[in-house]
Amino acid sequence: MRKFILLSALLCFPIFAAAQTADDIIAKYIEARGGLAKIKAIQSERVTGTIVFAPTVQGPFLVERERPNKMHMEVSLGGQTLIRVYDGKSSGWVYDPFSQTPAVKPMSENELLNILDEADFEGPFIDSKAKGNKLEFAGKADVEGKPAYKIKLTNKHGDISYFSFDATTYMLLRWQGTRKTPEKDVPAESLFRKFNEVDGMQYPFLIESSSPGTDQTQKIIADKIELNISISESHFTRPTPPAEPAEPAAPATTPAQPPAPDSSGTPKPN
Questions:
Q1: With contact defined as beta carbons under 8 Å apart, do 266 and 222 qualify?
Q2: How far apart are CA 118 and CA 21, in angstroms?
Q3: Is the pLDDT of residue 260 over 70?
Q4: Residues 246, 248, 249, 255: what is their CA dihedral angle, to the nearest 10 degrees?
Q5: 70-77 and 57-66 as β-strands: parallel, antiparallel, unpaired?
Q6: Which of 118, 129, 19 is nearest to 63 (CA)?
Q7: Which of 13, 69, 137, 234 could crosslink 119 through cysteines, CB 3.0-4.6 Å?
Q8: Alpha helix (H) ranges present in the chain?
Q9: Are 246 and 262 in contact, with CB atoms under 8 Å apart?
């Protein structure tokens, strides 16, 4: 009897271990989202909705992306619009109306280093090795009472972040990492909620983010996600600043950075 129990344990162990490898978890996540073929078939994407920093500090956002790595992003607060654009090749621009000297400026060297992660709506798990990403299984986790598998991702710049996937559905539940600010790197996390189907693909329509130990929070609510739509090429060139409002009403606080894409194809705070 003892030999039978031992044999059963040995036979089950490889299955249990295999279920906890990074490659297996990511493969199941990709399948849960809609499958690799559908992800690869997406040529362009537009996400519109609302970003909320506080009950009185919120406004609409727009994110457009197109292969290969083109991106156009707008966030409007208090009647003013912040714009970020990348041409998919080597040039990017930022218009920040909340700065002391608003003007369209080239992206900094540091911004250009990270822009491919933002412009890539496939996310870091598709062709991860080619993108320079190292994936490792990091154990189990509990995300708001749900058992989850945790994956450690180290990108080509050495930045480390953690992604937790529902152990039952394999959908993404949480991202944990750091946000780079001019002063220092700060811890941050995002929770992914309200998944809905768009053209056979699963997307989170609500992303809630915070910086542990602070009162900084952001909520991104996607109203509409469109795939394989036509986007004017002019959206990926140097932007023209919007006309100033007749009576500018600056918000009580302004975002340190606009929202950036996450691995599920919708924006998350940067």
A1: yes
A2: 26
A3: no
A4: 140
A5: antiparallel
A6: 118
A7: 69
A8: 2-18, 22-33, 36-41, 109-119
A9: no
Residues 6+ apart with CB under 8 A from 74: 61, 62, 81, 82, 83
pTM metric for this prediction: 0.83
Q: Mean pLDDT, to the nearest integer, of 138-153?
A: 96
Domains in the chain with CATH codes: 16-269 (2.50.20.10)
Give start and end residues of each alpha helix (H) in 151-267. Answer: none
Query: At a CB cut-off of 8 Å and minimum separation 6, what does 37 contact?
Result: none
- The Cα–Cα gap between 133 and 136 comes to 10
CA distances from 4 to 14, 16, 17, 159 (A): 17, 18, 20, 47
Strands (E), the chain: 44-54, 57-66, 70-77, 80-86, 92-95, 104-106, 134-143, 146-154, 160-166, 172-180, 185-198, 201-210, 217-227, 259-261, 267-269
pLDDT at 165: 98
